[in-house]
Every structure is written in structure tokens, then in C-alpha cells.
Specification:
Helix content: 55-70%
Number of domains: 3
Distance between the termini: 64 Å
InterPro entries: Cyt_P450 (IPR001128), Cyt_P450_sf (IPR036396), Cytochrome_P450_Monoox (IPR050196)
Family: Belongs to the cytochrome P450 family.
Largest sheet: 2 strands, antiparallel
Number of strands: 4
GO molecular function: heme binding; iron ion binding; monooxygenase activity; oxidoreductase activity, acting on paired donors, with incorporation or reduction of molecular oxygen
Pfam families: p450
Radius of gyration: 29 Å
Number of helices: 9
Strand order of the largest sheet: 1-4
């Protein structure tokens, strides 16, 4: 590393990134000690070295990103804390009732446990951010797959379009509202079919709260994390098992 620094200095380099050079020197030395391998990573790039260094950078970026997200959510919570006393709970509920919406953050701010205790700001932030992260990508990917599948099957796409147009024929305003969804059975089935084919959630996990004895005698012990790693919707091969499940069997 000294020879490298001398060469860089002679080439006119006035500033040297000490951490980068020391990291490469350390990795090079460890590879010699652990693997008896001379990587020469101080002089040439290596995919292995890059894969070692990248996670460290990702951790830093993750911490920065998490802090930015937390700061944003905290600012929203504090803004509502200031708004509620000025506006009053009754006025807020009346305003929300007019537009038929009650924001998730409002629900959390107004929520109380069985003892009448309100949620802490940390609890509200955790719930709100979980709702955002869990809902954003899954909803976006789910809707994208719905559009993709409808594009592949234009005859079904036309059925969905016809159903929506018929609903809105004498509808005022010309917008589909929550109460109208029950009148769109074909569109509903199309969405469910797309979710069955391409589920946004690739797996789910549950921790058993007690020993579970399966019909064949096997036992799932209490405290075991059970992961459904394949599609959370059953495959065609499992269809018969679902019918059995409705009769109390797995």
C-alpha cells in the first residue's frame, strides 16, 4: 500500500481516500491469511471484493433512508397533533364525513385501547409506515398483473369494460364508488383470478401459539415459525386439498 501511495503521489494525486485504500489492504491481507490467495485487489477490481464492500454501503444507505422516512412520518404526526386541538374532534369528523373519508393516520390518532389509552407516536409511526411499505409495492404489482392479464385476454377485458359502462350508464356522478363494487362481479372475478395467478405476496409466515397435531399424527410445536413459501393461493394440484380443508381436513 505504501508503494501505491508513492505512485499516486508522484502522479500528482493530492487527495487520497484513506478508508478505501485501507479497506482494500485489509481485505487483501485477510485473503492471504484465510485462503492463501493473493487477490491483488489494491491494484485491480474484483467482483468478489465489490460484493464484500457493497453490503457496507447498503447498510449506510438503508440507515439514511430509514431516518428520512421516520422524519417524514413524525412531521405528519406532529402536524396532526397541532391540528386536532385547534379544529376539534367533532369538526374533524364532520369534515371527514362530508367527503366520506377518514385517513388512516386519523384513525390511529383517534384510536384508544381497552383502557382508554391513546397510541404513542412511536406506535402510530410503526403502523403508518408498515401500512405504506406493505401496501405500496403489493398494490402496484397486483394491479400491473391485472392489466397484463386483461391485455392478454382482450375478450375478458371487453367484458370488464362493458360491465363498467353499463354501471355508469345512468350513474351520477360518472364515477365508481365503494357501494358500486358489488355490481361488478366479472371485474371482481378477473382481479381475483389475476391475484391467484400472480400473488403480490410470495409468502406468509405464522408462529404457532400452541402445539398443533396434524391429521396424520405429526406435531407442529408451539413457537415454530411456519412459512408458506410458495404462492399463498393454492395451485391447481392442491385444489382437492382445499375441498378437504372445508370438511375439516388439511
Amino acid at each position: 500500500v505504501q508503494a501505491k501511495w508513492k505512485r499516486l503521489a508522484s502522479e500528482g494525486s493530492a487527495h487520497l481516500d484513506m478508508f478505501e485504500h485501507i479497506s482494500l489492504m485489509t481485505l487483501d491481507s485477510l485473503q492471504k491469511c484465510v485462503f492463501s490467495f493473493d487477490s491483488n485487489c489494491e491494484e485491480k477490481s474484483s467482483e468478489y471484493i465489490s460484493s464484500i464492500l457493497e453490503p457496507s454501503a447498503l447498510v449506510t444507505k438503508r440507515n439514511v433512508a430509514c431516518r428520512l422516512v421516520h422524519d417524514f412520518t413524525d412531521a405528519i404526526i406532529q402536524e396532526w397533533h397541532c391540528t386536532l386541538p385547534d379544529q376539534g374532534l367533532d369538526d374533524l369528523l364532520k369534515t371527514k364525513a362530508k367527503v366520506k373519508t377518514l385517513d388512516f393516520i386519523n384513525v390511529l390518532l383517534l384510536a384508544k385501547d381497552e383502557d382508554g389509552k391513546e397510541l404513542s407516536d412511536e406506535d402510530i409511526r410503526a403502523e403508518a409506515e408498515s401500512f405504506m411499505f406493505a401496501g405500496h409495492d403489493t398494490t402496484a404489482s397486483g394491479l400491473s398483473w391485472v392489466l397484463y392479464n386483461l391485455a392478454r385476454h382482450p375478450e375478458h377485458q371487453e367484458c370488464c369494460r362493458h360491465e363498467a359502462r353499463e354501471l355508469l350508464r345512468d350513474h351520477e356522478p360518472k364515477e365508481i364508488e365503494w357501494d358500486d363494487l358489488a355490481q361488478l362481479p366479472f371485474l371482481t372475478m378477473s382481479i381475483k383470478e389475476s391475484l391467484w395467478l400472480h400473488p403480490p405476496a410470495v409468502s406468509i409466515s405464522r408462529c404457532s401459539t400452541q402445539d398443533i397435531v396434524l391429521p396424520d399424527g405429526r406435531v407442529i410445536p408451539k413457537g415454530v415459525l411456519n412459512v408458506k413459501g410458495m404462492s399463498i393461493w393454492v395451485s391447481e394440484q392442491e385444489g382437492a386439498r382445499v375441498e378437504d380443508g372445508r370438511k375439516g381436513h388439511i
